[in-house]
UniProtKB/TrEMBL annotation, chain A:
InterPro entries: AAA_GajA/Old/RecF-like, Bact_Antivir_Def_Nuclease, P-loop_NTPase, TOPRIM_OLD
Cross-referenced Pfam families: AAA_15 (PF13175), OLD-like_TOPRIM (PF20469)
Residue ranges of domain OLD protein-like TOPRIM in the record: 463-528
Phylogenetic lineage: Bacteria, Pseudomonadati, Pseudomonadota, Alphaproteobacteria, Rhodobacterales
Cited Gene3D superfamilies: P-loop containing nucleotide triphosphate hydrolases
Name of the protein: AAA family ATPase
Source organism per UniProt: Sedimentitalea todarodis
Occurrences of domain Endonuclease GajA/Old nuclease/RecF-like AAA (ranges): 1-82, 264-343
PANTHER family per UniProt: ATP/GTP PHOSPHATASE, ATP_GTP PHOSPHATASE
UniProtKB/TrEMBL annotation, chain B:
Name of protein: DNA 3'-5' helicase
Family membership: Belongs to the helicase family. UvrD subfamily.
Pfam families noted in UniProt: UvrD-helicase (PF00580), UvrD_C (PF13361)
Chemical reaction(s) catalysed: ATP + H2O = ADP + phosphate + H(+); Couples ATP hydrolysis with the unwinding of duplex DNA by translocating in the 3'-5' direction
Length: 637, 638
């Protein structure tokens, strides 16, 4: 059983957000974007402790904004956790039996789901923020009867224990005898009674021998015995020195992991190793914990939910890259935040969630396979579903219409008709519109796979950029960097990722990726046949004419070299060729010049880019589409 | 500790009971005579199934017919296997359906917080409004019983017309039925019949839900299976589907006394045909003295509609209080009044501490009322015990109605009840129609406007005003209803007279709160509290030192040391209707079973009586007396 979706309202930086989760989910975003708020929402929702302070919510958890300055007034904090089977009977039978009273059912496919809601608002009478946990039915109404009993919550939590590894992991804390994994592991160790007794006898004997070895120790003990004469007690006390542990727990609690980096190096305690090794060791400790004792502490069918902040901390890029594999192999459901492009390189696109802070609070973008509209089931849609070729389905275990692909216009119209003439038609139509619009951003598995192979090199970094600039090839890539610098807008400094799409895939895949994940983007393409084709391919992905006009630039004279010549840069270009040892270049006519440049694309472009970077006047003479695009990047949305 | 209490319970079973308790998989039909320990068999089997599978998570379903019986069974299972209690769902058909609809009803448009209308007056009100709204004929309100009949046969409104011979009658009923159901839906309410009918609709429309119940509830048990109605049986069938076999029914075909309500030998026959169960008989009676067992056997063999191979009851009771020939007495009186007076006199002679173990049973209420006044004259405490759908005292009627109003501020019916009850309590004269009109002008809530209206008539009555204020405070925060209830309970006057309406209601209330708390927890929200309140009887528990007066129907499943069965005369038991239907009619057989049930309630002593004259009409002694083989007195004893 794992969390399939989280809906959050009015919680910390989040006004309203919906996040889907898989076996592994990777949250990226700048500091303070709201990643930790998402992890915290899960932690609070799934770890209620009765009568214990510090659980639940405080006034600092309420989302505040211009319309809401006072946490005590306004809509409640709401966290809705959904868990759903992918197929019927995916969840173990015993889990289903235990949680029977809160399970909701898709009565057609038999898929089970559980919906839990935590809400919290200020209670004037109690003078505190009072949270309320409840399980919901598919219409999101609280369950009544047995489903409303408090005991359900305890059972439910048993199946879904949450563990939190913060970014600041201190190996001495995590491996202390009181820590969440190490301490619990040690406490399950069972030493047979005879061995325990025997050890004690040996410790005592050895202790005595050691004390006797040096009179200083004996004298010390005698000296300390005077404590009793000061601590006014009738019975005379006695002090002794203990050089060895009193019992086996004393030994176990001091157990320490030692580690040898490679053969021949010394064995050292973890704390003596580098930060990277320390950080990694905590993750593997978690793995051991889950595999060895989770089912004893919780239930055999429990799924650990691990919230893991910045696992890449202190790791070498190479290690950060391979980290993905280790994390995905950890048991349970993992929710990871990261700031590392290296780590991200191997994360599947579908698992990435881009978290941002915008005017209305935190937003979360992703590349879902499905788009969902919370609308009721009516018999009229059955025929539309049957004719949709699998694009439309209805999920009765959450009461949602599901689009598994881009919804064609005619099917959308049919759906609108099916829900016409009801008192709630307006709301339903709005929900359908929203899902239909979102489905226009659908990217198929095949496309993502292609992108994955082409763009591995750049995919880590582009997701950490703020804006994308798409250009055709390597020479444009160099040139725009130079021009921008010359124009006083350093692309690296401003978080602009330049993507040379010819080497990495196709322009339209980056355009749809940017749209779906919320990266503002621009493209500059050649004015030749191929360039027109690129724009046509982007347009075909449901971009409006206005969007295309705003976001794409093409070189009017044709390809890059033609444009440079057209813009009167012959002298500069010829000088570069001459500097490359091509003395004849001085006398080239335009046509010869263009073809000579084409033969050495990246060579000349690198030099020209460098010149532009250092010479603002030259940069100002570069092709207008580049300059316009760079200008437009500022404040681009 | 629990291990031992279960093993003790197991060791106390007789051989036949053990076989039933140990039954594991497959269909089983247990024919259990009166006093044969069937409740013990059921509860021990539930406990054993759970105890044998401590690491499994499947649940066991056990359905019986009254909430009281369910509460008792639950308590016994909890005592036997406390740590497994969660895995047992013990309830009534209605509470089971209520839960199913709370959890999965949304698939057929039912919200989990639905109200349950258990009172006919409420339902008539709903129907009257529905008829008015739909522009139908006002006097069609009398079709409510027709609607109930349709519902009990699980017939939904759409298409119900075809069940009528006359098409115009049919379409009229269909319209009224549809309007009534629409009104219930609009009020987010279900009536008792809907609980079964909608649960059936849910599992037939979505077999996946039935499949889920089969999977989660691995073993099903049905108590008093002979009383299952057609609708209940069809619900079981729909839930079981084609493959589910772990059904265990306990029944006594000699105790079918709810034929008029749809119970029938047919259901037992259907069960046999549909599930081909193994059959086991528990003929040994551990309750009654041998003399009673023997007359019961003699009586019931006159019935033909029963299991052919049914073994006669065997007397299993070993320790007897009285000598063998003193267990039964037959008395004849001149008139019903004399009968009542003499029986009362007899009871008055019994030690007062034993009165709680004395019951007087009659076919109808008529004789019970006579007995009650006769007993009162002799200063014997006696109550007529029967299911009560509502409280009696204005105080508790008001309390329940205010709770309802708090949950559903627009509920007109609740307003009517609380206004009427409060007027009776404090002599105010608030008028519902004026309150409703006023809310339209002031846009205040019905309850607020009621408060304004009664306060005008209350003057400076401290208690009255305080109650009105309590109600107003509660309405603002319905979630804090428990504080409200406690405050009101403290203000309801105590009365010395134990038989008063207030005292009875108060006892019933605390009994109900205890029972509801056990079922859904003490912190359950108001809507669930009211749901549970609606499906329970508001009858007060019979106090100690109080004689119980009951109809035979009400006595089913009960037992007493001393039992008086009165009115054993032709036209009374057997009833006039059964005589009209004929000597070998189904009705006559049902009357015979009534008599059978009545006499087998007695643990120590049975008194059968009749008079020569009832309500001024001469009557012959009941044929059942002769069938039982008694020689009757030549003369009335007074």
């Amino acid at each position: 059983m794992q969390i399939s979706r989280l809906k959050i309202s009015n919680f910390r930086s989040i006004k309203e957000a919906e996040i889907q989760f898989g076996a592994v989910t990777v949250l990226i975003g700048t500091n303070n974007a709201g990643k930790s708020a998402i992890l915290e929402a899960i932690r609070i929702a799934l770890t209620r402790r009765w009568g214990q302070r510090g659980t639940g919510f405080t006034e600092y958890d309420v989302h505040l904004c211009d319309g809401r300055p006072d946490p005590k007034v306004g809509d409640p904090v709401v966290i809705e956790v959904e868990l759903q089977e992918a197929v019927a009977n995916e969840w173990p039978e015993d889990l289903q039996g235990e949680l029977e009273d809160i399970i909701q059912l898709d009565p057609v496919t038999g898929r089970a789901s559980i919906i839990m809601r935590v809400s919290c608002s200020w209670d004037a009478a109690e003078e505190s923020f009072v949270p309320r946990w409840e399980f919901l039915n598919v219409d999101r109404n609280p369950l009544a009867g047995r489903g409303a009993r408090a005991v359900n919550l305890q059972e439910f939590f048993q199946f879904l224990p949450v563990f939190y590894l913060e970014a600041l992991r201190d190996v001495t804390d995590e491996f202390s005898s009181r820590s969440q994994f190490w301490g619990k592991l040690l406490r399950t160790v069972q030493i047979p009674e005879p061995l325990e007794q025997r050890s004690k006898r040996i410790f005592d004997l050895l202790n005595r021998r050691l004390l006797d070895a040096d009179p200083l120790l004996t004298n010390l003990a005698t000296g300390l015995s005077h404590i009793s004469s000061v601590a006014a007690s009738d019975a005379p006390g006695q002090a002794d020195l203990r050089l060895l542990p009193l019992n086996t727990w004393d030994i176990l609690s001091k157990a320490e992991v030692i580690y040898q980096t490679e053969g021949g190096k010394p064995w050292l305690p973890l704390a003596r190793h580098g930060q990277g090794v320390q950080s990694l060791s905590v993750m593997f400790l978690f793995k051991a914990f889950v595999e060895l004792i989770l089912s004893d502490l919780y239930r055999p069918e429990s799924t650990a939910v691990l919230a893991l902040e910045e696992p890449e901390t202190h790791l070498h890029p190479q290690a950060a890259r391979s980290l993905w594999r280790h994390i995905s192999e950890l048991p349970g459901q993992k929710i990871v935040t990261t700031h590392s492009p290296y780590f991200l390189q191997h994360v599947p696109f579908r698992d990435i969630r881009v978290v941002r802070v915008e005017a209305n609070g935190t937003t979360v973008s992703s590349l879902p396979r499905q788009f969902r509209a919370p609308v009721p089931h009516v018999p009229q849609i059955d025929a539309i579903i049957a004719d949709s070729g699998g694009i439309i389905t209805y999920d009765r275990s959450l009461n949602e219409l599901v689009l598994s692909g881009t919804l064609p216009e005619n099917q959308y119209r049919n759906l609108l008709v099916a829900y016409a003439g009801r008192p709630d038609t307006q709301g339903i139509h709005a929900a359908l519109r929203k899902a239909c619009d979102a489905s226009q951003e659908f990217i198929s598995d095949a496309e993502l796979e292609k992108l994955g192979t082409f763009a591995r090199r750049i995919r880590g970094e582009i997701f950490f950029a703020r804006r994308w600039l798409l250009v055709e090839g390597q020479s444009e890539y160099q040139l725009v960097h130079g021009i921008a610098k010359g124009l006083g807008y350093d692309l690296d400094e401003h978080g602009v990722a330049v993507i040379d799409f010819q080497n990495n895939g196709s322009p339209e895949i980056f355009a749809v990726l940017a749209r779906a994940l919320g990266y503002p983007w621009l493209a500059v393409v050649d004015g030749d046949h191929a360039g027109h084709d690129y724009i046509a391919r982007i347009t075909a992905r449901n971009f409006s004419a206005a969007e295309i006009a705003r976001r794409t630039y093409s070189l009017p004279a044709g390809f890059l070299e033609q444009q440079l010549v057209e813009d009167g840069l012959q002298n500069e270009l010829k000088a570069i060729l001459v500097s490359f040892g091509n003395a004849a270049a001085t006398d080239f006519d335009n046509e010869t010049l263009i073809s000579a440049l084409e033969n050495d694309k990246s060579g000349y472009a690198a030099v020209l880019a460098k010149q532009c970077a250092e010479n603002q006047a030259l940069a100002q003479r570069m092709p207008a589409p580049f300059r316009d695009a760079i200008l437009a990047l500022r404040g681009l949305t | 500790m629990t291990d031992s209490s279960l093993s003790v319970a197991l060791s106390e079973l007789t051989e036949a009971q053990s076989v039933a308790v140990a039954w594991r998989d497959g269909p089983m039909f247990v024919l259990a005579g009166p006093g044969s320990g069937k409740t013990r068999v059921l509860t021990t089997r539930v406990a054993k199934l759970l105890a044998d599978t401590p690491d499994r998570s499947f649940r066991v379903l056990a359905l019986t017919f009254t909430n009281k019986a369910a509460d008792e069974m639950s308590a016994r299972v909890t005592a036997l296997v406390p740590e497994q209690e969660r895995r047992a769902l013990i309830g009534t058909f209605h509470s089971f359906c209520m839960q199913m609809l709370q959890q999965h009803g949304s698939h057929i448009g039912i919200n989990p917080d639905f109200a349950i209308y258990s009172l006919d007056v409420d339902r008539q009100e709903i129907l009257r409004d529905a008829i008015k709204q739909a522009g139908l004929r006002p006097d069609d309100v009398r079709l409510l019983s027709t609607i109930d009949k349709l519902k009990s046969q699980l017939i939904q409104p759409a298409g119900s017309a075809r069940y009528f011979r006359d098409p115009s009658d049919g379409s009229r009923v269909e319209q009224v039925y549809a309007a009534y159901e629409a009104a219930l839906t609009q009020a987010n309410a279900l009536d008792f019949g809907s609980l079964i009918a909608q649960a059936h609709r849910l599992v037939t429309a979505f077999p996946g839900i039935a499949g889920r119940y089969r999977k989660t509830y691995a073993y099903w048990m049905f108590d008093e299976f002979q009383d299952t109605t057609d609708g209940q049986y069809r619900l079981i069938r729909a839930l079981a589907g084609e493959d589910f076999r772990n059904v265990f029914a306990v029944a006594d075909d000699d105790q079918i006394i709810y034929q008029w309500n749809g119970a029938s030998y047919q259901q037992i026959q259907r069960f046999r045909a549909d599930f081909s169960p193994q059959e086991l008989q528990l003929p040994t009676n551990y309750r009654c003295p041998p003399a009673i067992v023997s007359v019961a056997n003699r009586l019931v063999v006159h019935n033909l509609q029963r299991t052919t191979a049914k073994q006669p009851l065997e007397a299993g009771k070993t320790s007897l209080k009285y000598p063998d020939e003193q267990h039964i007495c037959v008395l004849r009186y001149s008139t019903d009044d004399v009968e009542a007076a003499s029986i009362a006199e007899g009871i008055a002679k019994i030690d007062r501490a034993q009165w709680g173990e004395v019951a007087v049973l009659a076919r109808t209420r008529y004789m019970l009322e006579k007995l009650q006044s006769a007993l009162t004259q002799k200063q014997v405490n006696a109550v007529i015990s029967q299911r009560r759908d509502d409280f009696r005292s204005p105080q508790f009627l008001w309390l329940a109605a205010v709770l309802r109003q708090g949950l559903r501020p627009l509920d007109r019916r609740a307003l009517e009840i609380l206004t009427g009850a409060f007027n009776r309590w404090f002599g105010t004269d608030a008028r519902v129609d004026l309150i409703v009109t006023a809310t339209e002008l002031t846009e205040r809530s019905l309850l607020d406007e009621w408060a304004v209206a009664v306060k005008a008539g209350l003057g400076d009555d401290v208690n009255g005003n305080a109650l009105v204020d309590l109600a107003a405070t509660f309405a603002k925060e319905p979630a804090r209803f428990r504080q409200f209830v406690d405050a009101v309970l403290a203000m309801i006057p105590a009365q010395d007279d134990e038989a008063s309406d207030i005292a009875e209601d108060r006892a019933a209330w605390s009994d109900l709160v205890r029972s509801i708390g056990k079922t859904i927890g003490r912190d359950a929200p108001l809507e669930q509290f009211l749901q549970e309140l609606a499906i329970r009887s508001k009858e007060a528990p019979v106090g100690s030192n109080t004689v119980t007066l009951m109809t035979i129907h009400g006595a089913k499943g009960k037992e007493f040391d001393h039992v008086y069965v009165v009115g054993l005369a032709e036209d009374i038991l057997p009833s006039f209707q059964s005589l009209k239907a004929g000597e070998n009619s189904a009705e006559m057989e049902e009357e015979r079973r009534n008599c059978f049930v009545a006499i087998t309630r007695a643990r120590e002593w049975l008194c059968l009586s009749y008079a020569d004259n009832y309500r001024g009409w001469n009557k012959q002694p009941s044929r059942f007396l002769l069938e039982m083989g008694f020689s009757l007195p030549d003369q009335p004893s007074q």
